[in-house]
Amino acid sequence: MTVTIPVLDLSKFRPNDPEGAASTQEFLDELYTAMHEVGFFYVRNHGVKSELLQAGFEASKNFFNLPLEEKLKIEKVHSPHFRGYTQLYQEITDYKQDNREQVDIGREFPAEPINDGRPLYRSMRGPNLWPEDLPEFKKTILELMQAMTDVGITILRAMARSLKVVDEKEFMAMFNDDYSARMKLTRYPGMKNTADKPLDHGLGVGPHKDYGFLALLLQDPIGGLQVQTHDGQWIDATPIPDTFVVNIGETLERLTSKTFIATTHRVLNNPEDRDRFSIPVFLAPSFDTHVPVAFKPTAEETDSKKVVSDIQENQLLQDEVYGVNELNGFFRSHPRIRDRWYIYNEETKLWSRRETPLLSV
Ligand SMILES: O=C(O)CCC(=O)C(=O)O
Ligand SMILES: [Fe+2]
């Protein structure tokens, strides 16, 4: 079966405008079909100014162009909150080292006290690490993260509405002040980049599903993102100017009993020497949220949702508490940061924060 990734027009979604009822309904129907059948779509007319998108890419390139020793000043290993810079090959996906470098940014919070009985996942909250020598970087990146978050929250509202059986107010209450947002700046070197020498497997990031509720991705024109259709084929998410690529994560898939699919995806490095840049934003409820399984699919929906994925079932994150999933996901992707800041107790089988970080990792 030939599957294409649909392009949805967000300006059709006018939830508070009685005159927009027909176009809103059309949008919701298209959204439902996209999420049920493909699990990915492009969104256009999202309202974020292209100057801001360009400024985001500029800021990202300025950072990646810094000498390695400058970038390492904000290396993620300095952050128990999994913020900061990750060198090429340091992140693990599907048991392989990724051919990409990246910066992780989250919402700014003060660090919380540790090991006082609160859940360990609250350690994910904390301050970001910012490069000192790029004065515009922080302002631009936080502005872009907020603008993309606003678009993502609008799409989440539309998803709740298109699912009908989900109570929109209850669903959106999970995104009150305390929602979780993460942004990543990525750079994928081309395979013939002789300075970086990407690993032969050619995977910028290996096959995976995202953890949370929604991912909204800004990609440059190079291409390389691929989506695994539900019969197991890999298709290109070819860049379309002025759009974001949207997909959902495992926790929202769980809430919908797989009516909406968290589709497997990966990124191939450019076969020549061209570097690719992308900026995804990941949205999820606050860490303490118990994500209900809210949806009882109809027989027809159950029938049509047999999905092939390259990901093994033991790689899936299915805890009911969102923070547990996010922490487990980061532990898996960043074992070096886990081992520096966290310790496993063989007797209790529980992780906790180290009182002082391990220096040797
Ligand atoms: O860079 C991309 O196109 C996708 C990145 C991605 O899937 C991720 O970081 O979860
Ligand atoms: Fe992803």
UniProtKB/TrEMBL annotation:
One of the Pfam families matching this protein, by short name: DIOX_N
Q: What's in the keyword line of the UniProt record?
A: Iron, Metal-binding, Oxidoreductase
One annotated GO molecular function: metal ion binding
Domain Fe2OG dioxygenase: start-end pairs = 179-285
Q: Where does the record place a coiled coil?
A: none
The record's listing under InterPro entries reads: DIOX_N, IPNS-like_FE2OG_OXY, IPNS-like_sf, Iron_ascorbate_oxido_reductase, Oxoglu/Fe-dep_dioxygenase_dom
Q: Which family does it belong to?
A: Belongs to the iron/ascorbate-dependent oxidoreductase family.
Protein name (database record): 2OG-Fe(II) oxygenase
